[in-house]
Amino acid sequence: MLDNYPILSILIFLPFAGGLALLAMAGRAAVCRFTALTVSLLELVLAGAVWVAAPGASAAGALPGFFLVEDLPWIERFGIRYFLAMDGISLLMVLLGAFLVTAAMLFSWNSVTDRIAQYHSLLLLATAGMLGVFLSQDLFLFYLFWELMLIPLFFLIAAWGNGRPFRPAMRFFLFTVGGSALMLLAIIGLHLAHGNATGVYTFALPELLHTPLSPRLSCWLFAAFMIAFAVKTPVFPLHGWLPDAYTTAPVAATVLLAGLMAKTGVYGMFRFAFPLFPAAAAFFAPVLMGLAVAGILYASWLAFAQTDVKRLLAYSSFGHTGFMVLGVAAWTPVALAGSVMQMVNHGITASAMFLMAGMLEERSGSRHMAGFGGLWGRMPVFGAFFLLFSLSSLGLPGLNNFVGEFLILAGVFRVSPVAAIAALCGMVLVLVYMLKLVQQILYGRTVQAGECADLSLRERVLVTILAALVVLLGIYPAPVLDLAGLPVALLTGGRGVLP
Predict the structure, then answer these.
(1) Is 48 within the bounds of a domain?
(2) Could you list the residue range(s) of the whole structural domain that residue 469 is in?
């Protein structure tokens, strides 16, 4: 049934068309908000329908593990095709993206009062670009979407950011454009190498996977791809843009940055870089593993020193992405399945924490932990949800983050017990700074005078859905692991996810 419709194109171009349509509605705030929320809900419903209707493990054509494919000639002279495909992992990322943009729209309902049409338009355009990244099977098309998501995010930070946002926005732009330029050179180099070796010039990933490369060229191309992906994730020490960008960006943009954009880098590693250059990936894997562990420890240490709630969460997000990269570097079925699981879990939990921080800032006008205290008694509903999401972030068993981190550590331990133990020490540091955050905000002496309104009905609906996902995926992660199982097995050589 799904094969009869261009579902993948609709998933990408629905938010894209919605974003463009919003630009024609400037000056009509209520219409803009309603239209943006409607588009995001339609996207979520369509992604959910694909999840329900898609055959779990059937193959589409010559692509094992993919159940939806759209492959059309585009710029035939250069071997460029309009080539989209969806497997279990990309479906998970599309579901996550549709959910997070809907959450961002709900949060922004009252918080954004300036240039409303442009703001919501940029959110939808950024989402379209990121969904295109998760669905592209042509490297030229992948690069177009990779760059498309950057431009709206830059303007969201620069135009609606807090304080003096232009410098963080420009740093974010320069870091990502620099990495993207290297990847573009590597894509062209791989295209030419494949054409010279086979006589067929193409950008299609399935064909490029079989490109014969010399060890030296393979290492250079792999390094170029990995730098681009490492900047977006980010991986230590290419994280310099992250703290200021996450802290300065409006909350809805931060949700997309941390909850979805960071996943494009991890996705690129295991979808493109490692399969295209397996020998180079095996050679550099210990380096990547070391950088991931260093990032986990470094981010946790810096998070403990922060006094700004949003900046602490920015470093926390950076540290948690280190676990995903660690699982990819280990390249075992269990570790890679854990990374996919953690991509979903982190997208939910980190977004929930940033949304809660935004709700707190809306009420108090401040993000400094020293200015709070005693909120458990004054805002009991807020306090209960904040505590739940904090416990999820620190990896409490029974909540979603624990499942992904446990699988990653179990898979990494088989490859490098030292790296697994070091990452476990990082989890202990996460426990320390998250408990410090909870203590200073929810308990202790009340610092701020006056009333702090508890969560509104709209906010309660939003955080209740997030909380339900946190608990459900913590006690029953099978839906995510089942979708990821076949793609992970194929990526890692056909082995099963379970030992």
Answers:
(1) no
(2) 277-499
